[in-house]
């Protein structure tokens, strides 16, 4: 195997030349303005070494990747009680689908589809006002990445609020089943702001390290979650992290991963590395087209698929 530094550099170079980059999300107006020619990658190894390439330092809207962090916080607050309000099965449906909520009594299939993440946001409101819950998410992510410069792009949150009819419908529908405890505007306020977190690949990969190391941040030794919880979050990422594209992502890449419509993907190599990739063009299922391709090549060249025998 070539060394990891040159594998990352090669992949960044290969992605630069790609023409078939997918479509930038346009249903959230500020995201439609991001140039599709961006590509970034950052790989943080267990010893803290970072291998970065392309636009790895440029902040982007992490969108649904934030659902990993909000889930971690909600589990810290109410533990397994969460699972009476959110399922743990892949949905096989689009990230913003409403159909299963009718037959399943307002219980979303998993915490990574929008409906599930809105319930998780509702749980976070037990910590205080919407502003306090949002501040708690920001504090958590800054602490994980050990970077106080990470911020929330208020214009992205405001644009989602102005255009988020589908999410409003999901929230109202779940509230009608009694699965939201707070006013829908509050749960959505938390949800839209967490989605509007702006982070670079380097910052995102740093923030995901605890998932690669049994719940412990290897830089500080701090226990973020128990080893069992880290494994379970990874299991959910593998099975649900790319919505109705999760099977394809597992097939091609073989790593737990969580995507967002900003074009970011956080991927975890247990025991070895935390990886973030970013390319704003999306495939038909709303996941980064080049991000997935880059991870597929990275896993193939490093042998990092979790299904590969050591
Ligand atoms: N904020 C986006 C939405 O609610 C997140 C979707 C995504 O990243 N898949 O539509």
TrEMBL record:
EC number: 3.5.1.2
GO molecular function: glutaminase activity
Biological processes annotated in GO: glutamate biosynthetic process; L-glutamine catabolic process
InterPro entries membership: Beta-lactam/transpept-like, Glutaminase
Keyword match Acetylation: yes
Organism domain of life: Bacteria
SUPFAM superfamilies (UniProt xref): beta-lactamase/transpeptidase-like
UniProt keyword list: Acetylation, Hydrolase
Broadest EC class assigned to this enzyme: hydrolase
Record: residues binding substrate: 64, 114, 160, 167, 191, 243, 261
Record Pfam families: Glutaminase
UniProt catalytic activity: L-glutamine + H2O = L-glutamate + NH4(+)
Family: Belongs to the glutaminase family.
PANTHER family membership: GLUTAMINASE (PTHR12544:SF29)
Oligomeric form and interacting partners: Homotetramer.
Protein's name according to its UniProt entry: Glutaminase
Naturally occurring in which organism (per UniProt): Novosphingobium sediminis
């Amino acid at each position: 195997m070539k060394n990891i530094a040159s594998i990352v550099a090669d992949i960044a170079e290969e992605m630069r030349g790609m023409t078939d980059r997918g479509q930038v999300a346009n249903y959230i107006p500020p995201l439609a303005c991001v140039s599709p020619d961006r590509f970034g990658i950052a790989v943080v190894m267990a010893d803290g070494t970072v291998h970065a390439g392309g636009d790895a330092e440029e902040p982007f809207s992490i969108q649904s990747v934030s659902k990993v962090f909000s889930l971690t916080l909600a589990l810290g607050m109410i533990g397994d009680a969460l699972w009476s309000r959110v399922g743990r099965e892949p949905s096989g449906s689009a990230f913003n689908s409403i159909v299963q909520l009718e037959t399943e009594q307002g219980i979303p299939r998993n915490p990574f589809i929008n409906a599930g993440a809105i319930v998780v946001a509702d749980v976070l409101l037990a910590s205080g006002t919407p502003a306090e819950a949002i501040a708690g998410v920001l504090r958590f992510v800054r602490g994980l990445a050990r970077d106080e410069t990470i911020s929330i792009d208020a214009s992205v949150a405001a644009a989602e609020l102005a255009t988020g009819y589908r999410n409003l419908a999901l929230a109202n529908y779940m509230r009608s089943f009694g699965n939201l405890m707070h006013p829908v505007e509050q749960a959505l306020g938390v949800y839209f702001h967490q989605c509007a977190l702006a982070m670079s690949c380097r910052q995102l990969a740093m923030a995901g390290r605890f998932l690669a190391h049994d719940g412990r941040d290897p830089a500080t030794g701090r226990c973020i979650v128990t080893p069992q919880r880290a494994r379970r979050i990874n299991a959910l990422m593998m099975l649900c992290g790319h919505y109705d594209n999760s099977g394809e992502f597992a097939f091609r890449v073989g790593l737990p991963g969580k995507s967002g419509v900003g074009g970011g993907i956080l991927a975890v190599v247990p025991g070895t590395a935390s990886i973030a990739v970013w390319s704003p063009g999306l495939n038909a299922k709303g996941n980064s087209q080049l991000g997935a391709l880059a991870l597929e090549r990275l896993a193939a060249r490093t042998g990092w698929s979790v299904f590969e025998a050591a």
